[in-house]
Amino acid sequence: MPDSLVDRHVGFVRALREAGVPVSVAEGLDAANALRVIELADRESLRAAYVATLVKKPAHRPGFDVLFDLWFPAVTTGLHAERPDEAMNPETATVEELRDHLAGLLTDGTEAEMRAFAQAMVERFGRQPASAGRQNWFSYSVMRALSPETLMARILREALAGRERGGLAEKTVRRRVDAGVRRFEEAVATDVRRRIAEDSGIERIARSAVRPPLDQVDFLRITKADLARLRREVHPLARRLAARLTIRQRKGRRGRLDFRRTMRASLQSGGVPLTTHFRPPRPRKPELVILCDTSDSVSSFAHFTLLLTYALREQFTKVRAFGFVDTVDEITRFFAPGSDVVEAMTRLANEADMVRFGRTNYGHALARFAERYGEAIGPKTSLLILGDARSNYQPPALDVLKSLASKARHAYWLNPEPRSQWDTGDSVAGDYGTVVPMYECRNVAQLTAFIETLA
């Protein structure tokens, strides 16, 4: 391969790794070998070769496509590009003429036509002057000028002329137009990123253009949109966590003596029962107690753990959940089976009694929990504590935590902060970690790894 293509390949693989897409050295070499047997001028064959060798999960595909379009753009500014329509000059056409043309593309346009039109619209509307003679590029100004979402009524009127509204035909047209609007938005965003990369460098725009895969999004920086997507991830994790804790409970336990098998085995030794046999223990769903820090400093993490709590209620015989800031309240009642999780969180924020003075105090919350709800923990209980162990320099109440952990069958602590920040400032993670095993849990990938350690 030419040196320029080698450099581009190396940079692309490095960008994938920085974006959270795992690519091993062997996989990078496989991709390089694949490039030797495909037609490099065929951009979609190039994309398919990279996908086949580097992408292992569907969640990694969106980030891959963004980076591929940056490192291997369809066109380069200044070179010949397809004209959106030879009968229409996009530089001189009126906005209404451009909207008419876009309306046709939303229903019947090909990918190439949509891409060419998007590039022309970015050239006309996306450029904004900046300081020092530079220029910025924006998707927003293009979408504001053309407003594709407002074309639905016009398209429906033309497509359904003389036919009844509200039927299957209208639904089909609406779906097609919605899909077309999404394609146009993505085509505009792709071309804007390409132009910014040409002006500022691919590496710079690549770092900000790609969000990490969902399983690597930091809980402390999670958005509402991410939480909505995470709901689909939570239920499989809850099932796996319940299964792992059940296995741990069964390990080391023996069921009742199996007298019949023991006596049958004794016939081989003259009736002397040298080997005893036991019945397998009955599999039972474990009981779970969750203590969750709901303070503002870990509010995003608390939202995720409450989603996890909601899912866990379906997997355990008995789940009791408690939230705290500087005092503690039982919040199990807000997550009754069948309730809406968003509504449950809203009620929790308005009705739960978890705050005295408003500053996190782990020591007081633990002492209050032991006083009011100590009976919730017993020999069948797994205790799960979720929080950053930052207690505003208040006494940590280690003796109370030791007492609670000693009564539980298992106890674990999941901390959403990076391990490097433990025991800095007001963190007492190290002290609590000597009593209850503490695990760094900043994203779904680390939560999954924690669950795997329970085997």
- Low-confidence stretches are none
Q: What oligomeric state do these chains adopt?
A: single chain
Strand order of the largest sheet: 5-4-3-6-7-8
Largest sheet: 6 strands, mixed
Cα shape: elongated
Q: How much strand content do the residues show?
A: 5-15%
When the domains are counted, the total is 3
Q: What's the gyration radius in Å?
A: 30 Å
What is the topology?
Blueprint: H1 3-18, H2 25-34, H3 43-54, H4 61-71, H5 95-108, H6 111-125, E1 127-129, E2 135-137, H7 139-146, H8 152-159, H9 168-200, H10 202-209, H11 224-250, H12 259-266, E3 287-293, H13 299-312, E4 318-324, E5 328-330, H14 341-351, H15 362-373, E6 381-386, H16 398-407, E7 410-415, H17 429-433, E8 438-440, H18 444-453
Parallel strand pairs: 3-4, 3-6, 6-7, 7-8
Antiparallel strand pairs: 1-2, 4-5
Polypeptide structure, described:
It contains 18 helices and eight strands. The chain is elongated and about 95 Å long. 51% of the residues lie in helices and 8% in strands. Strand 6 (381-386), helix 16 and strand 7 (410-415) form a beta-alpha-beta unit. The chain has 455 residues and is α/β, with parallel strands linked by helices. It has three domains: 3-71; 95-211, no CATH class; 220-453, Rossmann fold.
Short description:
This protein is α/β, with parallel strands linked by helices.
